[in-house]
Each structure stands twice: as C-alpha cells, then as structure tokens.
Amino acid sequence: MLTIDTKGFLRLFSGLEGDEDRQFSQDLRAHLSAFTDVAGSEAGKLMPVSPLRLNITCCDIALTGEVVFGTNAGEVFYYRTAGDDKNNSNSRLLREMHGSDKANPEIVNHVHFRPGTSTHLISISDRCISFMGFLSSSPSPSTVKGDTSSGHKPFKALVEKNNISLDLLLRSMNKEAKQELFRLGDDQIKLDECRFVAERSWLLFWTTTGHLWVFDYTASAIIYSTYLNNARITSIDLSSVNRETGQQVMVVATSSKSIYPFRIRADNQTEAEPIKENPVLASKVLPRSIRVAPDRTFIIVGDDGGGLARRIGSVEWQVANAHTGWVHDLVISPDQRFLLSASESVKLWSAFDGTLLQSFMTHGSVNRLVTRFPSSPLPLLDRNQNPISRAGGGGGGDSSGGPKVTVVTVTDASELYILRTLN
User: Fold this and answer.
1) Which residues on adjacent β-strands are paired with residue 275?
2) CA-CA distances (angstroms) from residue 159 to 62, 131, 149, 289, 302?
3) What is the chain's Cα-based Rg?
4) What's phi and psi for 228, nearest 5 deg?
5) For residue 240, what are the CA distances in angstroms to 169, 271, 385?
6) What is the DSSP track for 340-375?
7) Rounded Cα–Cα distance for residues 21 and 232 (Å)
8) CA atoms of 195 and 357, how far apart (whole Å)
9) What are the counts of helices (DSSP H) followed by strands (DSSP E) for the chain?
C-alpha cells in the first residue's frame, strides 16, 4: 500500500504484517535530489524541483511496483522502483507537467494507472484531464492494448500525451447542461473524480455540479454524457458485465438524496449505450457510499448519518445507526454473503439481513477499504441463502472455510491497519 504522510511525502507498506519499506522513501528522496540537478541544468526543461518543498497531493502504485504521484505545482512524477539500471537516477524518475498550460499549472488532484498497465496513466485537475504513456523496461509483458511495457526496452521519457479540457467536455454536453453552464459560470464548475471501467476500457469522470461523462480511452471518444440537475455526485458503482446479455448496471448517488440507476446496454464489444432511468429516492439522509451486488439484484447504501440499507427499489433491511459518522466506503463480498463498511471503525455484516458479525476498532476515521477475498470464487447466494446462477459472473467454488477476508486501510490519524476476519 502506498500512502501520503502528514508531511506530504510517500510511504510504502508491504508484506503480511504491513512492514514499512523505509528504503523506498530514502531512494525516492535521493532520486528527486539527483533529478533536480539534471532538470535544472538543461535549457528549456522544466524548472528544478526541491524535495523539501514538494507537496504531494495524490499517488498510485501499479501491481509491478511502479509509482506515480502528482503535486500542487502541476507536476506528475513517474517512478520505477526497480530495474537493471537502478543506479542511474535519471533513468528511474520521470517528470511531466499535467495539462498543456505550463505557465499556469494546476494542482493535480488525482492520478491513476490504467487498469492492467504500469506505463499508462491519467491525471486530473480542476479543469483538465491528461492521458500519459511512458516507455519502461518491464520483465512482465502486458496484455493491455497500447501498453508498451513488454520486453526490456530502455527507460525513456514520455511517449504519449493527450489533454482534454473541461471547456471542451462541457461543449459536448446536451442543451440542458449548457444552459446550466451559462447560469453557473465556468469558474464554479470543476472536475471532481473519476472511475475506470476496465471491462469496457471506459473512464467515468464527473464535475462538482453533476456533469457526468463516459469516455472510451482506447478510442479517445466520449460515449455518453448526462447532467444530474446541479447535484454533486457522492458515489458511483458498477456491476460486473452480464456475459449472456452484455448489460451492466451503474448506480449514481447524489447530494439531492437521489440514486440514479443506469442500464449500460452493449450491442457488441465496440458500441455501448448507457440509458438513464427514473431516479429512486434514497432516504431523508444523504447517500455517501453505494455498491451494486455482483448479480445486479440489489444495492447497499451507506449514508451521512451512519446508516446502512439494502434495497431493490424499496428497502429490504435497514440499520439506522450502523456507525456514528459518515459511511465512507462499502464492499460486498463476491458471494454476496457479507458486507464491509468503513467509518469511525470497520464492520462486517451479513448482507442477507444486516446482522453485525464483527467489528474492527481503529484510531481515526477510515475513508477507503482495500480488500482481498479468497482466490476461488464462491457460489452466489440469494437472500434465502440458496445458490443462484452466476450469469456472466464466472462459476462457483468451494465455500468451506469461511470468508477469510483481509482488509487493508489507513485512517485519518495516519495509522495503517491490516484486518483479518474470523473463519
């Protein structure tokens, strides 16, 4: 797990016990110092960067160990943690400016590796999205289209970069959204977050005022856009793709206390059409986290009052005071038996009836859960705990031995926890 500490620098934790890799921080600081000398000595290059004043705002780590992080000065750093040329500082650390306006850099709010790749990534600021691709030597060939990390090529600089401005995205919206844009003004609309849909090579991104786009990052095309009535999006989740019908369910929770269900209908592998349906009123409290069941038959909603609810249009069960604060994150187990919720603590529930099974007390609030379930998929169960068909879900498995779930999380008190459920 890669984290940003209270001093604005990166820390890497690994192993079964979550041991900190202190050598990682030392090496990265050394490479940043060496990189400063190189970058500052070449005319026309980016301005030198001082590690002591570096304010890291976001980060991500690839499965093969590559690290990317963004700064408040509009910089995106790409760092390879290992390699044959590990003694060459400049060959392991690359820097690129986010966006196209280097004279007026924006704070990089989010950086993410594209699913399945260690060389292609996106960075997001308030007004721009940048798609970047790097050329790296990697021992593991990639199966992702456009990923150039296979083989043992030398580590080079940026080989691909495309920028999409918020202004361009807003001009692509429908008439209703454009009218709202005129009413609000450009300066009040900002890009908020993003979400990859790896199964379709899509990227979802949205603004603080309810503008939502579905973008195909392999075709570099906007698939769909909609406007949710100036309501801020609080949570988005997508089901798996049904292999029989090609359909997928997406749910969007907003600050208007509504949940919008979408049906993503695929006629073939290259064309897909999201269709907005009627909004479903969530409750009198604000939904903060929402998850779709693997078989697409129900959703779990966590609200800002600490409540949990399972619903299929109407509420099936509800726990009004599941937590004392906002429900920041939810995870439904692949077999639909269990539910994990994160707030002032992490709790394990029965997804069938909302029974509390286990609590993990933490110091500080938990904002995100990283979970690891058994590698062998368990059979899906309905609410009566009967096996159901896994249409498009991927087969059954041995259900013996209990959940054996591992949860890794960091609290806002800067403490790392590795939690394991009881068998």
Assistant:
1) 263
2) 18, 11, 12, 37, 42
3) 22
4) -105, 50
5) 27, 17, 21
6) EEESSEEEEEETTT--EEEEEE-SS-B---EEE--S
7) 38
8) 30
9) 4, 31
| 114-160 pLDDT per residue, tens | 988 888 899 999 989 999 887 755 433 333 334 443 333 344 455 66
Structure tokens, 391: 């249409």
The ranges of the chain with pLDDT < 70 are 15-18, 35-54, 82-91, 136-160, 174-187, 266-283, 313, 372-423
- φ and ψ at 39, to 5 degrees? -65, -35
> How many Cβ atoms sit within 10 Å of the Cβ of residue 395?
8
Contacts of 22 (CB under 8 A, 6+ apart): none
Nearest residue to 63 (alpha-carbon basis) of 30, 29, 14, 7: 14
137 token code pair: 């030597």
| CA–CA separation, 137 and 154 (whole Å) | 6
Q: Give the C-alpha separation, 207 to 194, whole Å.
A: 9
| CA dist., res. 312 & res. 321, Å (int) | 21
One-letter amino acid of 419: L
Give me the residues paired with residue 301 across strands: 290, 309
**Amino acid found at 294:** P
Q: Residues in the chain, how many?
A: 423
The tally of CA atoms less than 13 A away on the side-chain side of residue 270 is 3
pLDDT attached to residue 275? 58
- Cβ atoms of 102 and 142 closer than 8 Å: no
The H or E element spanning position 258 is: strand 258-266
